Amino acid sequence: MPVIIVTGRGGAGKTTTTANLSVYFAQKEYRTLAIDGDLFLPNLGFHFALENVSYTLHSILKNPDVDPEWAIYKHEKTAVNVMPGSTRLQDVVGISPKRLREIVELMKYKFPVLFLDSPTGLPFDTLPTFEVADYQIIVVEVERSPIYSFEAMIENEISKLKVIGEEYGLKIGVVLNKVRESEDIIEHIVEEIEQNVGLPVIGIVPFDGNVPESVNVGIPILGYKPKSDAALAFYETGEILEEWIFKKIKKV
Question: How many domains would you assign to the chain?
Fold first, then answer.
C-alpha cells in the first residue's frame, strides 16, 4: 500500500499538510496512518491533541520489544490513526533512525494509506524510509518566497528535495502553502515549477488564520472547519492525490 513522504523546509506547513491529507483519506474511508518521522523535533501529535501519550514512535525505536500497535492512536474526531513522536528530551537523545524504515515497511502492509511527516529541510531522519516509499510531497511556503527570489528558492530547495525523491524512484508532487499572492503571481510560480522543474503542483492552499486555531484545539482544519478556505484547498489537494494514487486501484 502507498507510503507518502511529506518534505519541506521549516515553517512551510508540511506537518499541517500531512495532518490534513491524512484526514482527507480517513474521511474517504481509507484506513489511514500518519507517522511523525521528525525524530528530533516531532509535533504531528499536537495537530491531533496527542502530546501526552504512553507510547510513541520513540518508544518503539528505543525498545524493540514494544509492539508498534501500542503507539498508534485513532483520533476520535477524524478517524486518522496517528503514531506520534515524543517531545521529551530523554526520549530523543540517543535514538537511531535506522529502525524507522522497518516500522514503516511493517505498517504499510496494515494500512491502505500511510503518511510520513519528515524533518525540516533535507530529510536525513526519514531517508532510509524512502526505500519503501512510493510518493513524495514537497511543501513550499509561498508567503516567504517573493517572486523575485522564487527561482533561487527552487534551485536551493525544491530541486534538492526532488533529487532525493528521484534517486529512490518516487513520484513527486508539490503543494504551495500559505498563499497570499495574486492569481497572476501564483500562475507564474506554478508554471515555473511544472515546466522548468518538471513537477506537478497538486495543491494551492491559501493563508488561513483558522489553521493555527485548529492546531491549538488538536483537530486538523479539514475536520475542524471544513468550509474554511484552507480546508477546501486541502480537500481539493486530497482529491488530486487520491486520483493520482488510486486511479487503477479499487478503493479499500
Answer: 1
